[in-house]
Amino acid sequence: MEKKLSKINEEVFLSIIIPVFNENETIKTCYHEINKKLEIYKSVLEIIFIDDGSSDNSVQILKELSQEDNRIKCIFLSRNFGKEAAMSAGINHTNGKYIVQIDCDLQDPPEIIPSMIETLEKNNCDVVYGIRTERAGESFVKRSTSYLFYKLIDKMSHIEIPRNTGDFRVMNKQVILALRELPETQRFMKGLFSWVGFKQIGFYYKRNKRIAGKTKFNYYKLWNFALEGITSFTNIPLKVATYIGFSISFIAFLISIFYLAKYFIIGDKIQGFLTLIVSILFMGGIQLMFLGILGEYLGRTYLETKRRPLYVIKEKINL
User: Fold this and answer.
1) What is the value of pTM for the model shown?
2) Does 243 reside within a domain?
3) Alpha helices, DSSP H only, in the chain?
4) Cα(262)–Cα(269) distance, rounded to whole angstroms?
5) Is 270 found in the same domain as 176?
6) How many domains does the chain have?
7) Are 62 and 20 in contact (CB under 8 A)?
8) d(CA 93, CA 124)
């Protein structure tokens, strides 16, 4: 992975980063909508599409668009590395004064980008992140689990990660340069956007339905994404495991004292084979659960020590 691939070019005012994974139904619409809604930036705009190992004809569509418009820059990764890696590839190749991260499905409306930039400049801040007031097209289960996850990580983490936000945001070049310096490969970008600091404010908006196609995130991927976020920005699960372990041991010690005293004082024999089995199974379950938590942290450490690149680029166009 190239860390500082491109210097910030003041001639490019706005860079749009768009990760792509099997989005052949949305790419052209996304491009035309951005062109139309950001007409005022037409001569100082670059659009960076990062294809994350698509298996449909997304690659061919991107190549055709890049031939028609040299403002379109394309990065083709050698396989599917995940959205966080694709975003990082885009961040490492931007040239603009301001950088916007947006999804190809246009759930985040590009027409509010000028207002977000205006908000950033008026408030003399470094980041304006989108806060969703409505989330059209998302199920109650997804909205509820998302809310609970961000509430949980906000309580557990040592940094504040705003709720009801996604990757949609405007950042200045200082923030981008800071993000390029981060060495980790196991990434939770929403956390990293907050971790780098700088002055950040929210911008409220209504999130739309996908313009076409289906989301590439299933509940299994969302679960792994949640684990990535929690293990990246807090060690509280390890502390909880320690506290619960001590608590159970202490309770078990008190119960042992109680039964021993009962036996020696009144001669009552300890009964209950079933109780013993249930206790063993309970303790075994607790131990396995916390071994799993410990394994998550050890696994992250193991992957980081390999120092593998975050992504591998197969091809670049107009870069």
Assistant:
1) 0.69
2) yes
3) 27-37, 58-68, 83-91, 113-122, 140-156, 173-180, 189-195, 219-233, 236-266, 273-305
4) 8
5) no
6) 2
7) yes
8) 25
pLDDT in tens, 43-90: 788 999 999 888 888 999 999 998 888 889 999 999 988 888 899 999
In a domain, 141, yes or no: yes
Identify whether the C-beta of residue 133 lies closer than 8 Å to the C-beta of residue 208: no
CATH number at residue 93: 3.90.550.10
Nearest to 26 by CA among 211, 227, 294, 269: 211
Helix (H, G, I), strand (E, B) or coil at 318: coil
The answer to whether residues 219 and 269 belong to one domain is no
Domain extent at residue 195? 14-231+313-317
**Based on the domain organization, do 64 and 93 belong to the same domain?**
yes
Express each pLDDT in 283-314 by its tens digit.
Answer: 776 776 777 677 767 766 766 677 778 889 99
Check whether residue 246 and residue 219 sit in a common domain: no
Summarised one tens digit per residue, pLDDT across range 240-288 is 666 776 677 667 767 767 767 776 777 666 666 656 666 676 677 677 6
Torsional sign, CA 285, 288, 294, 300: negative
One domain for residues 181 and 285: no
112 part of a folded domain: yes
Region class of 200: left (phi > 0), else alpha (psi between -120 and 50), else beta:
beta
